[in-house]
Design a protein that fits this description.
It contains 13 helices and twelve strands. It is α/β, with parallel strands linked by helices. It has three domains: 135 residues, Rossmann fold, CATH 3.40.50.300; 66 residues, no CATH class; 77 residues, no CATH class. The mean pLDDT is 90.
Length: 349
């Protein structure tokens, strides 16, 4: 990640959440059995708040995003947007509500119609929701292009004539064209060259600050989520294992899996990098077709006990030591009620 990132200044709103996910489940049945891609996830996002969802490939984080915007229908639980339960709505019932939430895909090449011009692509949500006539839509497209840092002459080109970074900016402009209250960004920079990732992240941060929408930011990039998110939820095999304010999670991770993730993230200072203890997890991520009993992480955890192997831990709410008005959550038998926890790096040494 480029060093040109400048942390944004944000103040998340109060009141009712723009997104409330309760005990979300998404199971896929196949010949080999049922895959519990998402298995009881709960989270909220307030207006103007960015919540990062991180984890390894196969953790279920992208499936959460697809369920939130109803590209996948949940197996269980509920998804509420601005207090409205959209979990079981039909496509027809969902249609007028889709202006309130939009998804930015990982690969802009696969999400932009190659036969449409950039102007048509960005104007399409305005047309579908009948929010502007042709002239108004054209003017709005010009404004959006300027807001995402694209030259006006690109409006009449097709997606294949743009670079990857430019195409992702078009995707962001399209998603924001109708002024959604919630943006779900699923790995929005992972398909881009490293040289343009920081500029797209800075753009997202600026737009989010100026417009005040809530954002679910799905990524495996810890530097990106530290920069952009107010709160971070860590997923492992379909479940959230830790959730905390971003600064608190990076300063004092509680779950051994979170500790391992952060220990593997590079830091800019070579001296600091040499001093750090790397936690190397044994084995691969278990198959979601046959997840381990008890705590799903126990097969790779250097601290696992017999209780971890047989009893699934609950996601408990704990106080944040630095600020009693804030809370954090962790699903680990080894974390005490006061938040104290053994150091996985010591046990792994």
């Amino acid at each position: 990640m480029s060093a040109s990132l400048v942390p944004p200044a944000r103040t998340p709103g109060t009141g009712a959440p723009v997104l409330a996910v309760h005990d979300l489940k998404r199971h896929f049945d196949g010949s080999g059995g049922s895959v519990k891609a998402v298995d009881g996830v709960s989270l909220t996002i307030m207006p103007g708040e960015v919540v990062g969802l991180v984890g390894e490939s196969g953790s279920g984080k992208s499936t959460v995003g697809r369920c939130v915007v109803r590209l996948d229908r949940p197996t269980g639980g509920s998804v509420e947007i601005n207090g409205r339960d959209i979990t079981a709505l039909s496509p027809r019932e969902l249609r007028p509500l889709r202006k309130d939430f939009h998804l930015v895909f990982q690969d802009p090449s696969s999400s932009l119609n190659p036969r449409m011009t950039i102007r048509q692509i960005i104007a399409e949500p305005l047309r579908l929701h009948r929010m502007a006539n042709r002239a108004e839509a054209s003017r709005r497209v010009d404004e959006l292009l300027a807001q995402v840092g694209l030259r006006p002459e690109l409006a009449d080109r097709n997606p294949h004539e743009l670079s990857g970074g430019q195409r992702q900016r078009v995707s962001i402009a399209r998603a924001l064209s109708v002024g959604p209250d919630l943006l779900v960004a699923d790995e929005p920079t992972s398909a881009l060259d490293v040289s343009v990732q920081a500029s797209v992240l800075n753009l997202l941060a600026d737009l989010q600050r100026d417009r005040g929408f809530g954002c679910l930011f799905i990524t495996h990039d810890l530097a990106a989520v530290e920069y952009l998110a107010d709160r971070i939820a860590v997923m492992y095999l379909g479940r959230i294992v830790e959730q905390a304010p971003a600064a608190e999670l990076f300063a004092a991770p509680k779950h051994p899996y979170t500790q391992a993730l952060l220990s593997a993230a590079p830091v800019p200072d070579p001296a600091e990098q040499r001093r750090r203890s790397r936690i190397v997890l044994g084995g691969d991520l278990p198959s979601p077709l046959d997840p381990p009993p008890g705590c799903h992480f126990h097969t790779r955890c250097p601290l696992a006990t017999e209780r971890c192997r047989t009893e699934a831990p609950e996601l408990r709410t704990l106080p944040v030591a630095a600020d009693p008005s804030l809370t954090r959550q962790v699903a680990c038998h080894l974390v005490a009620d006061d938040g104290s926890v053994p150091d996985a790096a010591v046990s792994a040494a």
